[in-house]
Amino acid sequence: MASIEEVWGAPFPSRQPMTKGPAEPKRDAAKEGRVFRTPQERTQAAVFTHKKSIDDLSKTLPIVQTDEEGGRNFRPERSRVRESFGNTEYPYAPPSFQAPPNDDKLNRILQLIEHNKSASTQDILLYIATGVFFLFAMDTFVTLGKRMK
Predict the structure, then answer these.
(1) pLDDT tens for residues 35-93?
(2) Of 122, 121, 119, 99, which is closest to residue 111 (Cα–Cα)?
(3) Distance CA 69, CA 23 (A)
(4) Phi and psi at residue 15, to the nearest 5°
(5) Listed residue (116, 110, 89, 83) closest to 101, CA to CA
(6) CA 19 to CA 74: how far, in whole Å?
(7) Cα 83 from chain centroid (whole Å)
């Protein structure tokens, strides 16, 4: 069995590094403050780093501070009123949502039918033009095929 040098025809070249510049210095995570002894220290460092963002969001979002607020905020009391989710008569909804659903479907179907009626003459003209073009192209190929014999 042949070796790589025999197949290559010369000694196989050694591997060279891709970058020719100076190597990056090794970073020390402990000196940079990226290593923490406990998860609590890491959390405190993250809170300190992102203090401005947290303060901005705390002003605008309903972020709870205590467990009692969280219980009131995320566990609503059961109401005995049964809500109708099919009702679309909301004062703040756009007029298109206030119409009964069946009317919306019928209006959409009618709109599509009207659109197709106006576009049907254009489609027929396009089909005719495409057919004439293909007939011309096929006739040209047939004529060229007869001449080549």
Answers:
(1) 877 888 888 888 888 888 888 887 877 667 776 766 665 555 566 666 666 655 555 66
(2) 119
(3) 54
(4) -80, 130
(5) 89
(6) 55
(7) 34
Task: Retrieve residue 137's tokens.
Answer: 């192209």
Tokens representing residue 21 in the block: 């510049």
- Nearest C-alpha neighbor of 36 from the set 48, 47, 45: 45
- Whether this prediction's pTM lies above 0.85 is answered by no
What is d(CA 7, CA 108) in angstroms, rounded to the nearest whole number?
73
Nearest-Å Rg of the Cα atoms of the chain is: 38
How far apart are alpha carbons 131 and 136 in whole angstroms? 9
What pLDDT, in 10s, does the model give residues 21-51? 777 788 887 777 778 778 888 888 888 888 8
What is the rounded distance in angstroms from the CA atom of residue 134 to the CA atom of residue 10? 61
Q: What is the C-alpha separation between 54 and 14, in angstroms, rounded?
A: 53
Asked if residues 45 and 34 have their Cβ atoms less than 8 Å apart, the reply is: no
Look up residue 131 and give its two tokens.
Answer: 């057919």
